[in-house]
Write a structure and sequence with these properties.
Layout: H1 4-9, H2 16-67, H3 77-86, E1 89-94, H4 108-120, E2 125-128, E3 135-142, E4 145-152, H5 160-201, H6 215-262, H7 267-291, E5 299-302, H8 303-314, E6 320-325, E7 330-333, H9 335-352, E8 355-363, E9 366-373, H10 399-402, H11 407-417, E10 421-426, E11 432-439
Helix pairs in contact: 2-4, 2-5, 5-6, 6-7, 8-9, 9-11
Length: 440
């Protein structure tokens, strides 16, 4: 049974709309199939058998009356009575003999009528339901000739069968249309909630979103709005706090720099100047990591142009940089934040490698940017650690050789803010490959 589950799932609808319709339609189809079977087996079968029995009984009555006549002229009163009361045309062919052949019944109606005739008639007979359109002809071999009994096919079946089927199919189509409209209205708020969550994950506030739909959907939408407001409030509080921290820390550093400027030169003073410069660089890195770009709005940008700006700035380091980007390459991003992430990745590649290759393309519904270098790379077991704040592969604390330890952290934070992913792997040149994947 467990092995059948994946096989069955392949044929099930994947969307909530499709599965909801299946839940509604499947029982309706089963009820109709059962109703049709019961109707056919009970009602139609019984009515058809009784109608066939009535026609066979009328013919048997006529045959028994005529069999008692010493001679049949063809104009007996029974012929006229049958026409008026049985809606049947009687014709007598004196001296004729039925051909010695059997016609196999081809339908349910013929089968039931043949069965009834066999039970009620003791004379040889032959049923023909094909020669005369919309009529049935029954020929009976009498002692001195053949009696033809012709009646309409309408007397052998009930029209309620077709009425029942038409009403059943028509009502099913109406119910299915109502179910489709109803389910679309129920699914629409869920789609809007998913779109709002996706938009917020890519950096947009989705200001026009409001709860609607069923109570459970409204509850989920209200929870999403509260979560969005809490996140935005926390980002705002963090930015305001860091602005104050930046001001408070820069003031004593400025005083220290002024005091060193008035002091006599020496090795100690130069060491203090380097320490102050290092502290300012670290402070800028800390603030850049914590501040982020949460207030910047996403907008369509030419990514190829942005990549040219980043690579042109990085060429000042003296490294060989190759750019391969599809043009035009227009995507919706937060330009300043995304430029900072790309700059951090390219500078990281230039710091450890002599040759850097940058490529960008749109594939499978997402933006893919790769930065390859020919440096020493990062061991696979360390690739998860390098995204931790202030983590450095280099053992020394010199920011000129190993940085502060926030470059990859800031880059991944920005990429995640766009709803994307930053993946580290092996470059074809033997160094590190950083792949940025952003849904578009």
């Amino acid at each position: 049974m467990a092995g059948l589950t994946p096989f069955i799932k392949r044929f099930l609808p994947r969307s909530l709309f499709g599965r909801s319709l299946m839940i509604i339609v499947t029982p309706m189809i089963l009820v109709q199939v059962i109703s049709t079977y019961v109707f056919y087996d009970r009602h139609w079968d019984l009515i058809t058998r009784r109608l066939s029995g009535a026609v066979a009984g009328e013919l048997a009555f006529v045959v028994e009356l005529l069999a008692e006549e010493p001679s049949i002229e063809g104009d007996e009163p029974i012929f006229d009575m049958s026409r008026r009361h049985f809606w049947a045309e009687l014709t007598y062919r004196p001296g004729d003999i039925l051909p010695n052949e059997t016609i196999v019944p081809s339908g349910l109606l013929e089968e039931k009528l043949t069965r009834e005739l066999n039970q009620r008639l003791s004379f040889p007979h032959r049923l023909d339901a094909r020669t005369i359109e919309r009529h049935v002809k029954i020929s009976v071999q009498l002692p001195n000739g053949v009696l033809d009994f012709v009646t309409t096919r309408d007397r052998l079946f009930s029209s309620t069968t077709y009425v029942f089927l038409m009403w059943m199919v028509g009502s099913s189509l109406i119910l299915f249309a109502v179910a489709v409209v109803f389910m679309r209205n129920q699914i629409r708020p869920i789609r809007r909630l998913a779109a709002a969550a996706d938009s917020f994950g890519k950096g947009s506030d989705a200001p026009g979103f409001k709860p609607e739909g069923a109570a459970e959907v409204r509850l989920a939408a209200s929870a999403f709005i509260r979560m969005r407001d809490r996140i935005q409030r926390q980002i705002s509080q963090r930015t305001e706090m860091l602005a104050g921290v930046s001001h408070d820390l820069r003031t004593p550093l400025t005083r220290m720099r002024l005091q060193l400027a008035m002091m006599a030169g020496g090795e100690d003073a130069e060491a203090l100047r380097q320490d102050i410069a290092e502290m300012e660089q670290m402070l800028e890195g800390y603030l850049a990591f914590a501040r982020g770009e949460g207030t910047e709005q996403a907008q369509p940008i030419d990514l190829a142009r942005l990549l040219r700006e980043v690579t042109n700035d990085a060429r000042h380091s003296g490294r060989r940089i190759v750019l391969r980007a599809e043009e035009p390459l227009t995507v919706t991003l937060r330009p300043n934040a995304f430029k900072r992430a790309l700059t951090n990745l390219v500078q990281n590649a230039c710091r450890y490698g002599k040759s850097v290759e940058v490529a960008a393309r749109l594939a499978h519904g997402q933006l893919e940017v790769t930065i390859d270098d020919d440096g020493p790379g990062i061991p696979p077991e360390k690739r998860a650690d390098v995204f931790k704040p202030f983590f450095r592969l280099e053992a020394s604390r010199n920011p000129m050789t190993g940085g502060v330890g926030l470059g990859l952290t800031i880059a991944r934070d920005i990429v995640l803010g766009h709803g994307g992913e930053l993946v580290l792997g092996d470059a074809p040149q033997g160094g590190l490959r950083a792949t940025v994947l952003i849904p578009v």
